[in-house]
Amino acid sequence: MIRKFLLATAFVLVCWFAVYAANAADLQVPQQMTAGTDLTLHPSGSGKATLYLTGPDHVEKRGIRLGEEVTISGSALKASGYYQVMIKSGSDQSASRFFVSPAEPANENFLARPSRVPVAKNDVISGVAFVFDKYRNLVLAPVPVKFSLTVGDTAPMTRTETTKNGVAWVKLGSARKAGAAQFVAKVDDAEVRRVVQQVASDPCNLRMKAERRDKNIFVETDPVRDCTGNPVPDGTIVTFTEVDSNGRSTVDARIKRGIAQAQLPASDNATISVASGVVLGNEIHLGGGR
Amino acid sequence: MKRTLPIIMAVLLVVLVAAASIRSGKLLPATNPQGAVQSLFEHVKSRDFAGAYAYVASSSNVDQGAFTRDLVGKDGSLRTNASLQEADTRVLRENPNQAQVRANLKWSTAVGAFYDTRDLSVVKENGTWKVVWPVEKQPNLPPQVIPVNYLRWDIVRRGGEDDWGAQSVEAPRVRIISMNAIEKDGGVIILGEIVNEDTVPGFVSVNATLIGNDGSTIGDESSFDKISHTLLPKEVSPFRIDFPGVKLAKVKSVRMQPNALLVPASADPVIGVLHQRIETDARGKHVLKGELMNESGETVNIPHVLATYYDNSGKVVWVSDGYVDHALLPQIPVSFAVGLRDDLAAQVHSYRVTVNQYSMDRSQ
Description:
The structure holds two protein chains of two kinds.
Chain A: H1 2-23, E1 32-34, E2 39-41, E3 47-54, E4 59-66, E5 70-72, E6 81-89, E7 92-101, E8 105-113, E9 116-118, E10 125-133, E11 144-151, E12 157-162, E13 167-172, E14 179-187, E15 190-199, E16 203-204, E17 208-213, E18 216-221, E19 225-226, E20 237-244, E21 247-254, E22 261-265, E23 269-276, E24 279-287
Parallel strand pairs in A: 1-7, 9-15
Antiparallel strand pairs in A: 2-5, 3-4, 3-6, 6-7, 8-10, 10-13, 11-12, 11-14, 14-15, 16-19, 17-18, 18-22, 20-21, 20-23, 23-24
Chain B: H1 4-25, H2 33-45, H3 49-53, H4 64-72, E1 83-94, E2 98-109, E3 112-125, E4 128-132, E5 152-153, E6 174-184, E7 187-196, E8 202-212, E9 217-222, E10 230-231, E11 236-244, E12 251-262, E13 265-266, E14 271-280, E15 286-294, E16 302-310, E17 316-323, E18 334-339, H5 342-345, E19 350-358
Antiparallel strand pairs in B: 1-2, 2-3, 3-4, 5-13, 6-7, 7-11, 8-9, 8-10, 8-12, 14-15, 15-18, 16-17, 16-19
């Protein structure tokens, strides 16, 4: 009698568990997804349930029917990172975790430094590209980035670097020609352009001539250029110094249209020198039988 | 007795007030040369230029307007914002009818005290001593148009809507090209020169931090006004940073920090520094003298002269500065003098003078 009772109880329990198992949602999701793609779930079971979705930048709650297809829109899965989806029906719940990885590269941020650099210097221009997908997720997979630096009509200096953890960087030398260099970083169709002003370096072979005019000595430099032949920008200071028996006279002239001019006091016997920054030019002796 | 004292005090008060009012309305004749000069400057101190003019000898051949302009300045010069604080007078020579009196004047100005020394002739006119006031005859520039087409630098900075990778314009590259630490007057003084190596103008300053033998910070100072703050491309400026009350023996190292900001600027005016020479002044002190010539077309209101002195190895041994109390009118030379320490005069092998300028009509 007791044995029959136990068998009947066991049978009832098995049936009850079978009914329970049949109603509970069975949740299966892919472990890896791409940002922006729709996710379709097929929760097994029957009856009403509530779906919860939590992600890096999105939280969602909605009612579903077990046994029917449930679609989570790609717009809810734009940010890359770990997501958790949970279906709750009564006191039963089922959860799963999955990873959304970035989509194809579509954007980039490009840091080019400095904005202004002297010509003909090695490794003075740095470019750092951060590659993003169209949802602004940093693309962690290796992606080739093409850097190119061009001044005027000269052939571009190009270098291709592969991103590491979403970042690619390059160091380039400045060209020998002054001008606004176009510094471009290109990833697939995404292209960002920066301008690096390549400016003349220190004056080179600074030379002047002097002549007496009325009551003054008029001094004028030859066109002031750097060692690679670029004209030194207007506004640059050129110092003329005259030393004679009356003392020392100096004029900090500004380069204007490529040359610097100044008027110094007249003297019968003077030594005139020219300098710009730390660069010295020629020296002229006037009068004194020389 | 109870009423007597208040009555006496009241009468005394009335008498003193009356005496004071009579004195302010009437000038006392100078009975000696020093008194004449002293009285003149006392009236200048209280900005009573008409009263001061009463002590000017008729032989000066100067009208009251010119006399006043000479004292209060013009063209927005430093003197226009100055007031006389002290006048120390001393008779140099004297005979019954003529004397020479030296007046050491201290003016207070917006940039600190300004010192001026004048040797004045004093003559006896109608029984009283009067001062012969030598008014500077400044040549007038004929009306003309001076074309100015110097460069200006303006700046467009990155906007708030640019992406975070967009670059802004860099600050100019500046470099300290020499530095020397000396001990003078019980303090440490850091001297040196800084150059703007870039192709754009910069607003520069130099900070120095003294590190003690135990590694602690002794002091932190900046160059303040002993520097040309606005440096055009390739312009070199001296700097001097004073640490009063610090012994050089206690300093292990000096940390220098040049700072530069990109600022809008203009390449004019050009100021020539002519006929620089080291001389000794009337008091026997070494001074660097010369003339400033404004080669542009705009008045420079307050010129500031910075002098750098080098020894025979080219090391900076001293930096001195001085403001000129006259405005620089175009093409008209104005003399200047800046002090040089007597104990360093023998070391000085060469020197260089640069000029800062402050013009009211120009914001940069």
